[in-house]
Amino acid sequence: MFWIINFILAVLVLAGFAGRFGWPFEIFTSLRPQLALLMLAMAFYMIMIGRPASCLFSLGFAAIAIIGMSAQFRTSPASVEQPDMRIVWANVFHKPSALKRVIQLAEKENADLVLLAEYDGIEMTLPDNWQYRLLPDETTLTKVVILSRGSVDNMAVMDAPFRPVSKVTIETPAGVITVGGIHPHTPMYPSWNRHRNADITAAMKTLGEHKHAVLVGDFNTVPWSQAMIDAERESAMRRVPYGPWSSWMGPLPFFGLPIDHTFVTNDLEAHVRVGRGTGSDHLPLIIDVRILK
């Protein structure tokens, strides 16, 4: 019985390495942390019942899964001294209480911008000091809301193949910074998986053509997925790691997943940290950026 469980888990680990072939393999790519944790649990149990061969089998495939998710353990860059812009990103999960806490976080952090996903359905009066806003209406089908303390050059919705990307351009003392917000489909169905990949690739390619550009969002995929690897390789943007932490379903690696990300062009210095829980299923990100001289 235990060999059967071990074998099934091993097959799922290996299936994740076929993520380039799309759905459903990419789902197992994303679940590598959980599969690794299950394999480690199986190895511990095999030790307890005196089955060393089964233990080594489980440990071997746990190691394969962990190596395959090494992008999660990339060291976070050093903090940015005197950032030109601070951004708070959050998926508020349609909860007014989560939105309220995110606004409080942004004010505590003295953020310049707040970008929000899953804002629709919330009936809450926004503070007056966040008066520059890109909100959804009958003509704006944006999936990401933008709030700004100060005046902006423009707020617009940028075309993408399936879900539009919100965009704002802000003049800072050091120069203009363009910020995009993305929230593509979840990979629950084959078509949604393709839609998500197309939107990520398009957004990164378009924003990568700007000087001083940032793309933040709930990408609905992990940094070691083939979709993210391909999109980063084909664009002029790079992901800013935030260490081993997860951003969805809790901060601990192997329990949650890092699916909220920040990408920047190479003419920006950036630092990202994961904030405390707000009552949403996602944790917020606090992003500092500075224009390189």
TrEMBL record:
Domain Endonuclease/exonuclease/phosphatase stretches: 89-282
Domain of life: Bacteria
Family matches, as SUPFAM superfamilies: DNase I-like
InterPro entries reported for this sequence: Endo/exonu/phosph_ase_sf (IPR036691), Endo/exonuclease/phosphatase (IPR005135)
Record Pfam families: Exo_endo_phos
Protein name: Endonuclease/exonuclease/phosphatase domain-containing protein
Native species: Aquisalinus luteolus
